[in-house]
Amino acid sequence: MNFSKSKYCQYCQCPKILWLNKYKPEELKPDPSAEERFEKGNQVGDLAMELFGDFTEVTAYDENGKLDLSKMIENTNECLKNGTVNICEASFSSGGLFCSCDILHKESDGYAIYEVKSSTHVSAVYITDITYQKFVLEKCGIKVTGTYIVHINSNYIFDGKLDVQKFFTIKDVSALVEEEAKKRDIEADLINATQLCDCKDEPKYDLSIKCRDPYVCGFWDYCSRHLPKPNVFDVYSMNFSKKIKAYQDGYFEFGDVRSAVKLSEMQKRQLDFVLHNVDEHIDKEGIKSFLDTLSYPLYFLDFETMQLVIPEYPNSKPYQQITFQYSLHYIGKEGGEIKHKEFLGESGIDPRRSLAEQLVKDIPTDACVLSYNMSFEKSRIKELADLFPDLSDSLMKIRDNVKDLIDPFHKGYYYNKAIGNSFSIKSVLPAMFPDDPELDYHNLEGVHNGSEAMTLFPKIKDLPQDEQAVARKNLLKYCELDTYAMVKIFLKLVEISK
Prior knowledge:
alpha/beta
Protein backbone atom coordinates (compact mmCIF):
# COMPACT_ATOMS: atom_id res chain seq x y z
CA MET A 1 0.00 0.00 0.00
CA ASN A 2 2.46 2.62 -1.12
CA PHE A 3 0.67 4.32 -4.00
CA SER A 4 -2.37 6.49 -3.28
CA LYS A 5 -4.70 8.56 -5.44
CA SER A 6 -2.95 11.76 -4.31
CA LYS A 7 0.38 10.38 -5.50
CA TYR A 8 -1.19 9.38 -8.79
CA CYS A 9 -2.59 12.91 -9.27
CA GLN A 10 0.85 14.34 -8.46
CA TYR A 11 2.39 12.09 -11.09
CA CYS A 12 -0.20 13.19 -13.65
CA GLN A 13 0.55 16.87 -13.01
CA CYS A 14 4.31 16.38 -13.15
CA PRO A 15 6.27 13.18 -12.40
CA LYS A 16 9.00 15.26 -10.77
CA ILE A 17 6.59 16.32 -7.99
CA LEU A 18 6.25 12.67 -7.01
CA TRP A 19 10.02 12.14 -7.05
CA LEU A 20 10.78 15.30 -5.06
CA ASN A 21 8.18 14.44 -2.44
CA LYS A 22 10.03 11.17 -1.86
CA TYR A 23 13.66 12.24 -2.08
CA LYS A 24 13.69 15.98 -1.31
CA PRO A 25 10.60 16.76 0.79
CA GLU A 26 12.55 19.48 2.62
CA GLU A 27 12.47 21.54 -0.60
CA LEU A 28 8.67 21.75 -0.51
CA LYS A 29 7.57 25.29 0.27
CA PRO A 30 4.86 25.23 2.94
CA ASP A 31 1.42 26.33 1.77
CA PRO A 32 0.02 28.62 4.51
CA SER A 33 -3.56 28.01 3.38
CA ALA A 34 -3.27 24.21 3.09
CA GLU A 35 -4.40 23.51 6.67
CA GLU A 36 -7.44 25.75 6.27
CA ARG A 37 -8.41 24.04 2.98
CA PHE A 38 -7.96 20.64 4.60
CA GLU A 39 -10.21 21.65 7.49
CA LYS A 40 -12.91 22.92 5.14
CA GLY A 41 -12.65 19.73 3.10
CA ASN A 42 -13.20 17.68 6.25
CA GLN A 43 -16.26 19.76 7.18
CA VAL A 44 -17.80 19.25 3.76
CA GLY A 45 -16.87 15.57 3.69
CA ASP A 46 -18.49 14.95 7.06
CA LEU A 47 -21.67 16.72 5.94
CA ALA A 48 -21.85 14.78 2.67
CA MET A 49 -21.95 11.47 4.54
CA GLU A 50 -25.61 12.23 5.30
CA LEU A 51 -26.60 12.46 1.63
CA PHE A 52 -27.99 8.95 1.24
CA GLY A 53 -29.29 8.25 4.73
CA ASP A 54 -27.71 5.83 7.20
CA PHE A 55 -24.02 5.20 6.67
CA THR A 56 -21.02 3.45 8.17
CA GLU A 57 -17.70 5.26 8.34
CA VAL A 58 -14.71 2.91 8.30
CA THR A 59 -12.00 5.42 9.25
CA ALA A 60 -9.59 3.97 11.82
CA TYR A 61 -6.49 5.24 13.62
CA ASP A 62 -3.53 3.55 15.27
CA GLU A 63 -2.22 4.31 18.76
CA ASN A 64 -0.20 7.23 17.38
CA GLY A 65 -3.26 8.89 15.90
CA LYS A 66 -2.31 8.07 12.31
CA LEU A 67 -4.70 6.51 9.83
CA ASP A 68 -4.69 2.73 10.13
CA LEU A 69 -5.11 1.78 6.48
CA SER A 70 -5.08 -1.97 7.13
CA LYS A 71 -7.89 -1.63 9.66
CA MET A 72 -9.85 0.59 7.25
CA ILE A 73 -9.59 -2.08 4.55
CA GLU A 74 -10.66 -4.72 7.06
CA ASN A 75 -13.65 -2.58 8.10
CA THR A 76 -14.58 -2.03 4.45
CA ASN A 77 -14.53 -5.75 3.71
CA GLU A 78 -16.79 -6.36 6.69
CA CYS A 79 -19.25 -3.77 5.37
CA LEU A 80 -19.20 -5.32 1.91
CA LYS A 81 -19.85 -8.73 3.44
CA ASN A 82 -22.79 -7.34 5.45
CA GLY A 83 -24.30 -5.51 2.49
CA THR A 84 -23.89 -2.04 4.00
CA VAL A 85 -25.60 0.44 1.66
CA ASN A 86 -23.43 3.49 2.32
CA ILE A 87 -19.76 3.05 3.24
CA CYS A 88 -17.86 6.26 3.93
CA GLU A 89 -14.08 6.29 3.42
CA ALA A 90 -14.38 2.78 1.92
CA SER A 91 -10.77 1.61 1.51
CA PHE A 92 -9.19 -0.80 -0.95
CA SER A 93 -5.75 -2.13 -1.82
CA SER A 94 -4.47 -4.13 -4.77
CA GLY A 95 -0.91 -4.75 -5.89
CA GLY A 96 0.53 -1.85 -3.91
CA LEU A 97 -2.26 0.53 -4.94
CA PHE A 98 -4.48 2.09 -2.29
CA CYS A 99 -7.50 4.37 -2.33
CA SER A 100 -10.33 5.50 -0.10
CA CYS A 101 -13.70 6.49 -1.57
CA ASP A 102 -15.57 9.31 0.15
CA ILE A 103 -18.89 7.49 -0.29
CA LEU A 104 -19.42 4.02 -1.74
CA HIS A 105 -23.13 3.56 -2.41
CA LYS A 106 -24.60 0.07 -2.95
CA GLU A 107 -26.79 -0.38 -5.99
CA SER A 108 -28.63 -3.43 -7.33
CA ASP A 109 -25.72 -4.74 -9.38
CA GLY A 110 -22.65 -3.10 -7.84
CA TYR A 111 -21.39 0.07 -6.19
CA ALA A 112 -21.29 3.71 -7.22
CA ILE A 113 -18.38 5.97 -6.22
CA TYR A 114 -19.18 9.47 -4.93
CA GLU A 115 -16.16 11.74 -4.63
CA VAL A 116 -16.87 14.76 -2.40
CA LYS A 117 -15.19 18.11 -3.11
CA SER A 118 -15.38 21.35 -1.18
CA SER A 119 -15.30 23.39 -4.40
CA THR A 120 -18.31 24.74 -6.30
CA HIS A 121 -17.46 23.12 -9.64
CA VAL A 122 -16.00 20.03 -11.30
CA SER A 123 -12.38 20.34 -12.43
CA ALA A 124 -10.27 18.04 -14.58
CA VAL A 125 -8.11 16.85 -11.69
CA TYR A 126 -11.21 15.49 -9.95
CA ILE A 127 -11.83 13.28 -12.96
CA THR A 128 -8.25 11.97 -12.76
CA ASP A 129 -8.79 11.29 -9.05
CA ILE A 130 -12.01 9.32 -9.43
CA THR A 131 -10.72 7.47 -12.50
CA TYR A 132 -7.88 6.13 -10.36
CA GLN A 133 -10.38 5.08 -7.67
CA LYS A 134 -12.47 3.16 -10.22
CA PHE A 135 -9.31 1.45 -11.51
CA VAL A 136 -8.31 0.27 -8.02
CA LEU A 137 -11.81 -0.92 -7.12
CA GLU A 138 -12.09 -2.94 -10.30
CA LYS A 139 -8.68 -4.47 -9.53
CA CYS A 140 -10.24 -5.56 -6.23
CA GLY A 141 -13.16 -7.21 -8.02
CA ILE A 142 -15.74 -4.49 -7.27
CA LYS A 143 -18.24 -3.75 -10.02
CA VAL A 144 -18.39 0.04 -10.33
CA THR A 145 -21.83 1.05 -11.57
CA GLY A 146 -21.30 4.78 -11.64
CA THR A 147 -18.91 7.62 -10.78
CA TYR A 148 -20.12 10.92 -9.37
CA ILE A 149 -18.62 14.18 -8.15
CA VAL A 150 -20.39 15.76 -5.19
CA HIS A 151 -19.63 19.48 -4.99
CA ILE A 152 -21.11 22.54 -3.32
CA ASN A 153 -24.07 24.31 -4.90
CA SER A 154 -22.82 27.90 -5.17
CA ASN A 155 -26.42 29.19 -5.48
CA TYR A 156 -27.60 27.61 -2.23
CA ILE A 157 -28.96 30.23 0.19
CA PHE A 158 -29.02 29.26 3.85
CA ASP A 159 -32.38 30.08 5.47
CA GLY A 160 -31.48 29.16 9.03
CA LYS A 161 -31.76 25.38 8.63
CA LEU A 162 -29.20 23.54 6.54
CA ASP A 163 -30.66 21.42 3.74
CA VAL A 164 -27.96 18.89 2.84
CA GLN A 165 -29.70 17.84 -0.37
CA LYS A 166 -29.84 21.42 -1.68
CA PHE A 167 -26.39 22.34 -0.36
CA PHE A 168 -24.74 19.77 -2.64
CA THR A 169 -24.81 19.23 -6.39
CA ILE A 170 -24.21 15.71 -7.65
CA LYS A 171 -22.77 15.38 -11.14
CA ASP A 172 -22.57 12.13 -13.05
CA VAL A 173 -19.04 12.04 -14.51
CA SER A 174 -19.13 8.47 -15.82
CA ALA A 175 -18.62 9.58 -19.44
CA LEU A 176 -15.71 11.83 -18.44
CA VAL A 177 -14.14 9.01 -16.44
CA GLU A 178 -14.44 6.69 -19.42
CA GLU A 179 -12.74 9.29 -21.62
CA GLU A 180 -9.99 9.78 -19.05
CA ALA A 181 -9.36 6.03 -18.84
CA LYS A 182 -9.04 5.85 -22.63
CA LYS A 183 -6.81 8.93 -22.79
CA ARG A 184 -4.46 7.76 -20.07
CA ASP A 185 -2.93 4.32 -19.78
CA ILE A 186 -3.21 4.02 -16.01
CA GLU A 187 -1.41 0.69 -15.94
CA ALA A 188 1.55 2.19 -17.85
CA ASP A 189 1.43 5.35 -15.68
CA LEU A 190 1.75 3.28 -12.53
CA ILE A 191 4.65 1.24 -13.91
CA ASN A 192 6.47 4.42 -14.94
CA ALA A 193 5.72 6.08 -11.60
CA THR A 194 7.08 3.09 -9.70
CA GLN A 195 10.25 3.05 -11.78
CA LEU A 196 10.65 6.79 -11.26
CA CYS A 197 10.36 6.44 -7.48
CA ASP A 198 12.79 3.52 -7.43
CA CYS A 199 15.49 5.62 -9.13
CA LYS A 200 17.52 7.97 -6.94
CA ASP A 201 18.66 10.08 -9.90
CA GLU A 202 16.62 13.29 -10.12
CA PRO A 203 14.45 13.24 -13.26
CA LYS A 204 14.90 16.02 -15.81
CA TYR A 205 11.65 17.96 -16.16
CA ASP A 206 11.89 21.63 -17.09
CA LEU A 207 9.54 24.41 -16.00
CA SER A 208 6.23 24.30 -17.86
CA ILE A 209 2.59 25.29 -17.63
CA LYS A 210 2.19 22.22 -15.39
CA CYS A 211 3.95 24.13 -12.61
CA ARG A 212 0.58 25.79 -11.97
CA ASP A 213 -1.87 23.36 -13.52
CA PRO A 214 -3.99 22.19 -11.84
CA TYR A 215 -2.25 23.41 -8.67
CA VAL A 216 0.63 25.74 -7.91
CA CYS A 217 3.57 23.43 -7.30
CA GLY A 218 5.22 23.74 -3.89
CA PHE A 219 8.61 22.88 -5.46
CA TRP A 220 8.64 25.97 -7.71
CA ASP A 221 11.46 27.69 -5.82
CA TYR A 222 13.59 24.56 -6.04
CA CYS A 223 12.95 23.90 -9.73
CA SER A 224 13.50 27.56 -10.70
CA ARG A 225 16.65 28.03 -8.61
CA HIS A 226 18.82 28.18 -11.76
CA LEU A 227 17.18 31.41 -12.91
CA PRO A 228 18.72 34.84 -12.30
CA LYS A 229 16.94 37.25 -9.95
CA PRO A 230 14.83 38.96 -11.14
CA ASN A 231 13.63 37.01 -14.18
CA VAL A 232 10.69 36.72 -16.56
CA PHE A 233 8.53 35.19 -13.83
CA ASP A 234 8.84 38.44 -11.86
CA VAL A 235 7.33 40.59 -14.61
CA TYR A 236 4.29 42.58 -13.50
CA SER A 237 0.82 41.40 -14.59
CA MET A 238 1.95 38.95 -17.26
CA ASN A 239 -0.01 35.76 -17.85
CA PHE A 240 1.84 32.69 -16.60
CA SER A 241 1.49 30.93 -19.95
CA LYS A 242 3.17 33.91 -21.64
CA LYS A 243 5.99 33.79 -19.09
CA ILE A 244 6.47 30.07 -19.73
CA LYS A 245 6.51 30.67 -23.48
CA ALA A 246 9.19 33.38 -23.08
CA TYR A 247 11.22 31.09 -20.80
CA GLN A 248 11.00 28.17 -23.22
CA ASP A 249 12.08 30.50 -26.05
CA GLY A 250 15.16 31.39 -24.03
CA TYR A 251 14.04 34.84 -22.85
CA PHE A 252 14.23 34.76 -19.09
CA GLU A 253 16.70 37.51 -18.15
CA PHE A 254 15.17 40.99 -17.96
CA GLY A 255 17.37 42.26 -20.79
CA ASP A 256 16.22 39.50 -23.15
CA VAL A 257 12.59 39.89 -22.12
CA ARG A 258 12.74 43.66 -22.68
CA SER A 259 14.02 43.29 -26.24
CA ALA A 260 12.13 40.19 -27.40
CA VAL A 261 8.74 40.10 -25.66
CA LYS A 262 5.77 42.39 -26.25
CA LEU A 263 5.21 44.33 -23.03
CA SER A 264 2.84 46.92 -21.59
CA GLU A 265 4.17 50.34 -20.66
CA MET A 266 4.05 49.44 -16.99
CA GLN A 267 5.99 46.23 -17.63
CA LYS A 268 8.59 48.15 -19.64
CA ARG A 269 8.97 50.61 -16.78
CA GLN A 270 9.50 47.82 -14.26
CA LEU A 271 12.21 46.21 -16.40
CA ASP A 272 13.89 49.50 -17.29
CA PHE A 273 14.15 50.53 -13.65
CA VAL A 274 16.07 47.34 -12.92
CA LEU A 275 18.15 47.33 -16.10
CA HIS A 276 19.16 50.99 -15.80
CA ASN A 277 19.20 51.12 -11.99
CA VAL A 278 16.55 53.86 -11.82
CA ASP A 279 15.26 54.42 -8.31
CA GLU A 280 12.06 56.43 -8.67
CA HIS A 281 9.57 57.84 -11.18
CA ILE A 282 7.31 60.73 -10.15
CA ASP A 283 4.62 62.31 -12.32
CA LYS A 284 3.67 65.29 -10.16
CA GLU A 285 0.91 66.45 -12.48
CA GLY A 286 -0.56 62.97 -12.60
CA ILE A 287 -0.47 62.66 -8.80
CA LYS A 288 -2.02 66.10 -8.46
CA SER A 289 -4.79 65.17 -10.89
CA PHE A 290 -5.65 62.22 -8.66
CA LEU A 291 -5.52 64.27 -5.46
CA ASP A 292 -7.82 66.86 -7.04
CA THR A 293 -10.56 64.23 -7.19
CA LEU A 294 -10.53 63.97 -3.38
CA SER A 295 -12.09 66.24 -0.79
CA TYR A 296 -12.24 66.70 2.97
CA PRO A 297 -13.38 65.24 5.28
CA LEU A 298 -11.46 62.24 3.97
CA TYR A 299 -12.14 58.73 5.25
CA PHE A 300 -9.84 55.73 4.79
CA LEU A 301 -11.78 52.44 4.86
CA ASP A 302 -10.69 48.80 4.96
CA PHE A 303 -12.85 45.69 5.48
CA GLU A 304 -11.95 42.23 6.72
CA THR A 305 -14.09 39.29 5.68
CA MET A 306 -14.44 35.57 6.21
CA GLN A 307 -15.70 32.87 3.85
CA LEU A 308 -17.60 30.05 5.54
CA VAL A 309 -17.75 26.95 3.37
CA ILE A 310 -20.92 25.84 5.19
CA PRO A 311 -23.01 28.99 5.75
CA GLU A 312 -24.09 29.71 9.32
CA TYR A 313 -26.04 32.95 8.91
CA PRO A 314 -29.46 33.32 7.22
CA ASN A 315 -29.36 34.84 3.74
CA SER A 316 -25.78 33.78 3.08
CA LYS A 317 -24.20 31.40 0.58
CA PRO A 318 -21.25 29.00 0.68
CA TYR A 319 -17.96 30.90 0.47
CA GLN A 320 -19.75 34.25 0.53
CA GLN A 321 -17.63 37.14 1.75
CA ILE A 322 -19.02 37.95 5.20
CA THR A 323 -17.76 41.33 6.37
CA PHE A 324 -16.97 41.18 10.10
CA GLN A 325 -14.60 44.09 10.68
CA TYR A 326 -13.55 47.49 9.46
CA SER A 327 -10.98 50.12 10.29
CA LEU A 328 -11.61 53.77 9.56
CA HIS A 329 -9.03 56.54 9.76
CA TYR A 330 -10.24 60.02 8.87
CA ILE A 331 -8.94 63.55 8.46
CA GLY A 332 -11.41 66.42 8.86
CA LYS A 333 -9.50 69.07 6.92
CA GLU A 334 -6.21 69.62 5.15
CA GLY A 335 -3.43 69.34 7.70
CA GLY A 336 -5.97 68.19 10.29
CA GLU A 337 -5.62 65.61 13.04
CA ILE A 338 -5.69 61.94 12.05
CA LYS A 339 -8.49 60.17 13.93
CA HIS A 340 -9.58 56.54 14.05
CA LYS A 341 -12.74 54.45 14.46
CA GLU A 342 -13.21 50.71 14.17
CA PHE A 343 -15.69 47.85 14.32
CA LEU A 344 -15.19 44.16 15.11
CA GLY A 345 -18.11 41.76 15.30
CA GLU A 346 -18.64 38.97 17.81
CA SER A 347 -17.35 35.61 16.63
CA GLY A 348 -20.22 33.15 16.14
CA ILE A 349 -22.84 35.89 15.67
CA ASP A 350 -23.81 37.31 12.27
CA PRO A 351 -21.84 40.59 12.26
CA ARG A 352 -23.36 42.17 9.15
CA ARG A 353 -26.29 44.13 10.60
CA SER A 354 -24.28 45.64 13.45
CA LEU A 355 -21.43 46.47 11.09
CA ALA A 356 -23.72 48.13 8.54
CA GLU A 357 -25.45 50.21 11.22
CA GLN A 358 -22.13 51.35 12.67
CA LEU A 359 -20.70 52.13 9.23
CA VAL A 360 -23.49 54.56 8.32
CA LYS A 361 -22.99 56.27 11.71
CA ASP A 362 -19.22 56.53 11.28
CA ILE A 363 -19.11 57.81 7.69
CA PRO A 364 -21.13 60.88 6.61
CA THR A 365 -23.03 60.05 3.42
CA ASP A 366 -21.39 62.93 1.50
CA ALA A 367 -17.82 62.23 2.71
CA CYS A 368 -15.01 61.24 0.36
CA VAL A 369 -13.86 57.69 1.10
CA LEU A 370 -10.55 56.14 0.11
CA SER A 371 -9.96 52.40 -0.15
CA TYR A 372 -7.06 50.45 -1.58
CA ASN A 373 -8.27 48.40 -4.54
CA MET A 374 -11.76 49.77 -4.00
CA SER A 375 -13.74 47.10 -5.88
CA PHE A 376 -13.56 44.89 -2.80
CA GLU A 377 -14.96 47.47 -0.39
CA LYS A 378 -17.58 48.66 -2.88
CA SER A 379 -18.78 45.10 -3.46
CA ARG A 380 -19.13 44.47 0.27
CA ILE A 381 -21.08 47.71 0.76
CA LYS A 382 -23.42 46.77 -2.11
CA GLU A 383 -24.02 43.36 -0.53
CA LEU A 384 -24.90 45.00 2.77
CA ALA A 385 -27.21 47.45 1.01
CA ASP A 386 -29.02 44.58 -0.73
CA LEU A 387 -29.32 42.68 2.56
CA PHE A 388 -30.65 45.63 4.60
CA PRO A 389 -33.06 47.75 2.51
CA ASP A 390 -33.64 50.22 5.35
CA LEU A 391 -29.92 51.10 5.28
CA SER A 392 -29.57 50.87 1.50
CA ASP A 393 -29.74 54.59 0.65
CA SER A 394 -27.10 55.54 3.22
CA LEU A 395 -24.83 52.64 2.29
CA MET A 396 -25.06 53.28 -1.44
CA LYS A 397 -24.23 56.96 -0.96
CA ILE A 398 -21.09 55.91 0.90
CA ARG A 399 -20.30 53.44 -1.89
CA ASP A 400 -20.75 56.09 -4.60
CA ASN A 401 -18.14 58.30 -2.92
CA VAL A 402 -15.40 55.68 -2.70
CA LYS A 403 -12.14 56.47 -4.53
CA ASP A 404 -9.22 54.13 -5.14
CA LEU A 405 -5.80 54.87 -3.62
CA ILE A 406 -4.20 52.31 -5.92
CA ASP A 407 -4.93 54.52 -8.97
CA PRO A 408 -1.75 56.67 -8.87
CA PHE A 409 0.30 53.47 -8.92
CA HIS A 410 -1.72 51.63 -11.56
CA LYS A 411 -1.63 54.70 -13.80
CA GLY A 412 2.14 55.05 -13.44
CA TYR A 413 2.13 58.39 -11.62
CA TYR A 414 4.45 56.95 -9.01
CA TYR A 415 6.83 54.01 -9.19
CA ASN A 416 10.04 53.00 -7.54
CA LYS A 417 12.20 49.98 -8.06
CA ALA A 418 11.36 48.46 -4.68
CA ILE A 419 7.68 48.13 -5.62
CA GLY A 420 8.65 45.40 -8.08
CA ASN A 421 5.84 43.47 -9.74
CA SER A 422 2.94 44.16 -7.37
CA PHE A 423 0.95 47.27 -6.49
CA SER A 424 -0.62 45.72 -3.41
CA ILE A 425 -0.44 47.88 -0.30
CA LYS A 426 2.02 45.40 1.21
CA SER A 427 4.40 46.07 -1.71
CA VAL A 428 3.88 49.81 -2.05
CA LEU A 429 4.10 50.62 1.67
CA PRO A 430 7.63 49.29 2.36
CA ALA A 431 8.80 50.69 -0.98
CA MET A 432 7.70 54.20 0.03
CA PHE A 433 8.65 53.82 3.70
CA PRO A 434 11.62 51.47 3.91
CA ASP A 435 12.78 50.32 7.33
CA ASP A 436 9.90 51.93 9.24
CA PRO A 437 9.03 49.47 12.06
CA GLU A 438 5.71 51.26 12.67
CA LEU A 439 4.57 50.24 9.18
CA ASP A 440 6.00 46.72 9.11
CA TYR A 441 3.31 44.03 9.05
CA HIS A 442 5.88 41.50 10.25
CA ASN A 443 6.01 43.32 13.59
CA LEU A 444 2.34 42.62 14.27
CA GLU A 445 1.38 39.80 16.63
CA GLY A 446 -0.88 36.93 15.58
CA VAL A 447 -2.38 38.45 12.43
CA HIS A 448 -0.21 39.65 9.55
CA ASN A 449 -2.49 39.39 6.50
CA GLY A 450 -6.09 39.06 5.41
CA SER A 451 -5.95 35.28 5.15
CA GLU A 452 -4.92 34.98 8.79
CA ALA A 453 -7.68 37.38 9.82
CA MET A 454 -10.24 35.41 7.80
CA THR A 455 -9.17 32.15 9.43
CA LEU A 456 -8.96 33.48 12.99
CA PHE A 457 -12.26 35.34 13.41
CA PRO A 458 -14.72 32.41 13.21
CA LYS A 459 -12.53 30.39 15.60
CA ILE A 460 -12.43 33.03 18.36
CA LYS A 461 -15.73 31.82 19.86
CA ASP A 462 -14.11 28.46 20.65
CA LEU A 463 -11.04 29.90 22.40
CA PRO A 464 -10.60 30.39 26.17
CA GLN A 465 -11.62 33.88 27.36
CA ASP A 466 -8.09 35.21 27.75
CA GLU A 467 -7.13 33.98 24.28
CA GLN A 468 -10.27 35.53 22.80
CA ALA A 469 -9.21 38.94 24.11
CA VAL A 470 -5.73 38.56 22.60
CA ALA A 471 -7.14 37.41 19.26
CA ARG A 472 -9.52 40.37 19.06
CA LYS A 473 -6.71 42.77 19.94
CA ASN A 474 -4.53 41.29 17.18
CA LEU A 475 -7.33 41.58 14.62
CA LEU A 476 -7.94 45.21 15.53
CA LYS A 477 -4.25 46.07 15.31
CA TYR A 478 -3.92 44.41 11.91
CA CYS A 479 -6.91 46.12 10.34
CA GLU A 480 -5.90 49.46 11.88
CA LEU A 481 -2.52 49.21 10.20
CA ASP A 482 -4.20 48.71 6.82
CA THR A 483 -5.95 52.08 6.99
CA TYR A 484 -3.07 53.83 8.74
CA ALA A 485 -0.85 52.65 5.88
CA MET A 486 -3.32 54.25 3.46
CA VAL A 487 -3.11 57.52 5.38
CA LYS A 488 0.70 57.46 5.22
CA ILE A 489 0.68 56.72 1.48
CA PHE A 490 -1.84 59.49 0.85
CA LEU A 491 0.18 62.04 2.83
CA LYS A 492 3.33 60.97 1.00
CA LEU A 493 1.60 61.57 -2.35
CA VAL A 494 0.49 65.01 -1.13
CA GLU A 495 4.08 65.80 -0.15
CA ILE A 496 5.44 64.54 -3.49
CA SER A 497 2.89 66.56 -5.49
CA LYS A 498 4.17 69.76 -3.90
